[in-house]
Design a protein that fits this description.
It is built from 17 helices and six strands. It is an alpha/beta fold and 452 residues long. The chain has two domains: 203 residues, Serine Threonine Protein Phosphatase 5, Tetratricopeptide repeat, CATH 1.25.40.10; 212 residues, Collagenase (Catalytic Domain).
Length: 452
């Protein structure tokens, strides 16, 4: 089993700052009427990573020969034949188009021979089931992938048996992905991208990767240019199932020199590995099952380890972001200092534009709560296009809603109404049902002191 956890560790879009008036209704005329139609994204234009091939090789080995649990994988495994994908269960209406776009990208960007099929002998079966059904099997998972099964009932019977043990695989022939059919369209798509990528390739996540879905921070919601390069490497003719770590390492320089020529002259960063103590501290700080003091202590420990490791990258930023999330309901001013610190470290790390957009939601929300529309507009403005190009509808709608409240504070009422209307189409994709969209509208509106 390899799965996406139910909630992102930190990048939740609710609770920007404490909302003192959650019952406040939006001024928009559609507050109690039919909402505008859902919006959706078109083609994806990912940015190719500019990375040293030395670094890419180290990332590839660590992603491919280790599970997230730390368990070592003895050999590389992949599909050795053209790959077929089918959908079963009760899929939501948006899954088909999202899957078609993803398969097209995998074919063109990762050069993988993969196609949709309706045949029952498909290599990969995507079964759409309820969230409740998934949680009966794995309580902390939003979705997951498992080898050598095709249905959730088959997985239940074979769980903890050798056939579903990733470390015993020699090659991949049949896998199943279990997606929720009652989540928001974006959550379903996010699960689709992450789980299909792991059905095809690496099973590990690395916190040090800022521009990848192979990262437990769950910031990226669609496969990035880095991810496609990793998958293209995975299916290069020079590799095959059964190769050892040493054999793959020996083949990587030639592969990467051929498919990523710019990386030959790029200086290596040689990023350090992430200690498990830091990962545990982050997960504890952002968990919901322990006390406030326990979360605060864990966030402090993550910051301490980050400093001791000498990190200046996204991991140090993430530790400060986590502390901001812990503090924002009890000490908003202290939380803002940690968000600003996080933003400074993100700004030093290539590939973290999307991370900075998430930080901007917190900083912008705080500015609105203080009645500073101009400051909020300055903070939010640079990141709207980032959310759009990253195809993150939940983040995009949140930024637009914050912008609309900031415009209201500046007495730019007509612009505010137009931006708010635009945001709702994206919110319907990002947050799902009407009640969730209306809750997001109320939450953001409650930040505005003019509406208190």
């Amino acid at each position: 089993m390899r799965g996406r956890i139910v909630l992102p560790l930190v990048m939740l879009l609710n609770a920007c700052v404490p909302a003192s008036h959650p019952e406040v209704a939006t001024r928009a005329s559609f507050a109690q009427s039919t909402l505008p139609p859902m919006k959706s994204f078109g083609a994806t234009y990912p940015v190719a990573p500019v990375r040293s091939n030395n670094d890419l090789a180290l990332d590839f080995i660590e992603l491919s020969f280790q599970m997230e649990s730390g368990r070592e994988l003895p050999v590389l495994t992949r599909f050795e034949t053209p790959i077929s994908v089918r959908v079963t269960g009760a899929p939501p209406a948006t899954l088909g188009s999202d899957l078609n776009r993803l398969i097209s990208r995998l074919r063109s960007e990762a050069r993988i021979d993969i196609n949709y099929t309706t045949n029952s002998n498909a290599n990969i079966t995507i079964e759409a089931v309820s969230r409740a059904d998934i949680r009966k099997v794995l309580p902390q998972a939003a979705c997951f992938v498992a080898p050598n099964v095709s249905t959730l009932s088959e997985y239940k019977s074979a769980r903890r048996q050798p056939k579903t043990n990733w470390s015993l695989l020699q090659k991949r022939e049949r896998l199943a992905i279990f997606l929720p059919n009652d989540a928001s369209p974006q959550e379903v798509r996010d699960c689709l991208h992450e789980e299909l990528a792991q059905a095809l390739g690496p099973l590990n996540d690395l916190y040090r990767l800022p521009d990848s879905v192979f990262n437990d921070d769950n910031v990226h919601t669609v496969l990035t240019g880095f991810d496609m390069l990793i998958l293209r490497t995975y299916y290069d003719p020079a590799l095959r199932s059964g190769m050892s770590r040493g054999q793959v390492a020996a083949a990587l320089p030639g592969i990467l020199s051929r498919i990523n020529p710019r990386g030959k002259t790029k200086a290596a960063r040689f990023a350090t590995r992430t200690p498990r103590a830091w990962s545990r501290a982050i997960q504890t700080a952002l968990g919901r099952s322990i006390s406030y003091s326990g979360r605060q202590s864990a966030a402090s420990e993550a910051i301490r380890i980050s400093a001791a490791m000498g990190w200046q990258d996204n991991r140090r930023a993430f530790a400060h972001y986590a502390m901001g999330r812990v503090l924002q309901n009890t000490d908003p001013e202290a939380a803002q200092k940690h968000y600003l610190t996080a933003d400074r470290y993100y700004a030093r790390t290539p590939g973290t534009q999307l991370h900075r957009a998430y930080v901007a939601t917190q900083l912008g929300a705080y500015a609105i709560s203080k009645g500073s529309g101009s400051e909020a507009l300055r903070l939010i403005g640079p990141h709207i296009q980032t959310a759009r190009s990253s195809q993150n509808a939940a983040l995009l709608s949140t930024l637009l809603l914050l912008r609309s409240e900031a415009l209201d504070l500046e007495n730019r009422t007509a612009e505010a109404r137009s931006v708010r209307l635009d945001s709702i189409g994206w919110a319907r994709y990002g947050f799902g049902p009407d009640w969730a969209v209306r809750a997001k509208l109320r939450e953001i509106a409650s930040l505005n002191p003019l509406k208190g």
